[in-house]
Amino acid sequence: MLAAPATGRRAASALMHRNALAEQFFGAAAPEIATTARDMATRFERGGRLIAFGRGAAATDAQHVAVEFVHPVIVGKRALPAFDASALPVRSVPHLLGEDDMLLAIAFAEDDDDTAALVRDALSRGIMTIAPLGGGVTRAVRARVAAPFVLQEWAETYYHTLWETVHVFLERAPRGQDVGSAAFLYPFLGAGNTESPGLLRDVVASIHAKVADDAALRMAVASQGDVLAAAASLIATSSARGGTLLAFGNGGSATDANDFAFDCLCPPPPMTPIAAMSLAADAATATAIANDVGTELIFARQLIAHGRAGDVAFAISTSGGSRNMIAALRQARADGLATIALLGYDGGEIARQGLADIAVVVGSDYIPRIQEVQASIYHVIRELAAGCGNGAY
């Protein structure tokens, strides 16, 4: 389905608007991220754990935090104890928090009473509390806009850079030695540069460089504005005809699929809901399929159950080559579903085999940056599907 050129221009404009906002936000946030990561590394070394918490859309980010720290995307990084407590009653979460533990609380709405109550309790007990988008708490940076979608994108970049920076401090070498496997994450860090003030300064500069990398990737994707507009039109048309969007992905991309499904079902006003499900959200079903017939079919088997002709299968993959993603898109095609894929690297086998009716490729080989820009992409698609597209959400 062809989109009007003006709609494609709105998609490009929304992406570029995000670049300006992110540069302003992280210009202020980078020093806080660096000092927070330094303090977190100390607590992890003492045996501390990270407890992540959020409600609504923010719960999907708490899931993402846990995945990044426990199962690092970079081979050789140590697994750090992190847990998503979002599904628990707020009154029970303090029982998880010990003296050296840390609370990372994510909230996109000022009236998030559960998260606010948890933060107050943790602070009263002297627990290190990290609230990327709130004010008045330990190691906190106040957000400067109220657009929920943009706030979520900032949160994802925040905790990705936080995770990367924690590993830099955990791996810092004695004076005169290199930083080893952390070097490619932070090219500014060289041999002998381990004094705290210099290290913090260089880490802050590296965080700014990561935000600039995101900006360049969004700019490149902006040239695919008509493709984003076509994806939005396909979703809007399917929804108008009673169709459902079925999102799926692995790991961090699973949490992004959860977030996109939530954004479709529970959008900020005045957007109206779009029927959507995340096939990554049901852990019992996914693990049952993986145990009984193999991980390759965890999404395809669910598509057989839920998919109907006229629905939209929405795949989020950084590599474009995961076997369960390929199997799911093939199943979707066989069952008459439309297919959309957000991909990284060069698009992988999904792009090479033409398994998606519409594919948007973020041309990077580094997973955190791919995921950050993919979040911007699916949010812009959601805005356009609602007839918006000015970056106001």
Describe this structure in words.
By secondary structure, this protein is an alpha/beta fold. The protein has twelve helices and nine strands. It has a five-stranded parallel beta sheet with strand order 6-5-7-8-9, with helices on both faces. It is globular. It starts with a helix and ends in an 8-residue tail after the last helix.
What distinguishing features does this structure have?
393 residues, alpha/beta, four-stranded parallel beta sheet, 12 helices, 9 strands, 51% helix, globular
Tell me the strand order in the biggest sheet: 6-5-7-8-9
Low-confidence stretches: 173-179, 184-195
Secondary-structure-derived class: alpha/beta
N→C terminal distance: 25 Å
The radius of gyration computed from the alpha-carbon positions, rounded to a whole number of angstroms, is: 21 Å
Q: What general outline do the C-alpha atoms trace?
A: globular
Q: What are the secondary-structure elements, in order, as H or E?
A: HEHEEHEHHHEHEHHEHEHEH
Q: Care to count the β-strands?
A: 9
For the biggest sheet, the summary is: 5 strands, parallel
Strand content: 5-15%
**How many H/I helices?**
12
Helix content: 40-55%
Overall pLDDT: 89
